[in-house]
Fold Asparagine--tRNA ligase.
Amino acid sequence: MELVNIKDLFRNESEYIGKEVTVGGWLRSKRDSKTFGFLVINDGTFFEPLQVVYGDALDNFAEISKLNVGAAVIVTGVLTATPQAKQPFEIQASEVCVEGNSAPDYPLQKKRHSFEYLRTISHLRPRTNTFQAVFRVRSLIAYAIHKFFQERDFVYVHTPLITGSDCEGAGEMFQVTTLDLDQVPHTEDGSIDFKEDFFGKPTNLTVSGQLNGETYAMAFKNIYTFGPTFRAENSNTTRHAAEFWMIEPEMAFADLQDDMILAESMLKYVINYVLEHAPEEMAFFNQFVDKGLLERLQHVASSDFAHVTYTQAVEILEKHNEEFEYKVSWGCDLQTEHERFLTEKEFGRPVFVTDYPKEIKAFYMKLNDDQKTVAAMDCLVPGIGEIIGGSQREDDYDKLVGRMEELGLNKEDYDFYLDLRKYGSARHAGFGLGFERCVMYITGMGNIRDVIPFPRTVNNCEL
Ligand code: 4AD
């Protein structure tokens, strides 16, 4: 049995009109009378559902009449043009095979449900128009990102999810252990003895693939990672998840400028790709989720991103301190409210903030000549704030060791990383794009929980 996607029927209508087709899908609604009825089915490939007309000539007419919303069916019949009707065509069924009826308490009604309610049924929400659009576009964005890097000969590296190091040095890690916590062996000083553990040392889920990625950039020149990362941050916000995906390119023989050029062209490429390949989904978001989204994205794709140093950004923000909950002064970390002010009010487009104080950035960033700031960049976008964090890396062995000592990092844990600075060190730079924040930005969805199929956030690990 060869099924046709509903999307293909709409995209190549003339090829199918007058011919017999077979379509599988789930029932969105049903109307019937004593001798005939209409089924409206959706197969997840397209927004537009397909209308099916069936009559009492079918052997299982009674069975079809008992179908509830949500039921799964496979329908065969001739695709017939309906120029007078709302929909351009319908199937006149010669066969309706009931794969599985749905119970009458199907939780999705024809009315619009709130996103909060739909989060409580994350196994069924992908059957709604909004979540079909979100997850089709999420899939397309992932594809566009791979395409962007592959077209430029970046090698895709699969970095490990279980690791012994803390890339960001922020201590926000989920520990991985096989020890029985009730009977953990302790050393003499009372701390847990990880020698007895699976790996013989403490390990955690990765917060970033960067350090491993750097080792491959020092062999392949240009690489990227694209995989899950985990952070035990206790941030219950609309843009933080405990499990999220990150894209981390790393380029040898590249500096901070090259890094920002790559980040900007990647974002523009992905936006253009989605606008071109998901026009119906993007029109849907523009109408129902975020009015003005299309205009904004088109503008972003065709104009240059702004650039400002951290020091200049702080000067701008200090003038507006009365508007902020957290007051700004040189040395402070920028909060979402500050990031959004810069990108939405001050520049009205995406902005790169560069050269942050070394104290608020990770140990691996290259120290600038002023000895106070590092060659870091964050890319901020309207509606979200930070979407990308990156830097040129410290490639000088002694300076890197000095920085690690200042921060009290254990050098043995980073032997492999230091070796890169011993054996053919070269300037190099990279960044991390938060995949879900990118999906939020492109779809206009306001909560990270609504762009992740099964979100993991503080106090939430359902399914
Ligand atoms: O700025 P971050 O922490 O950078 C790194 O991890 C570097 N190792 C990246 C690199 O240079 N290779 O994180 C990068 C991005 C952020 O800009 C944000 O978009 C996203 O990852 N991110 C999160 N997304 C969702 N939930 C969280 N808890 C996130 N934390 C960071």
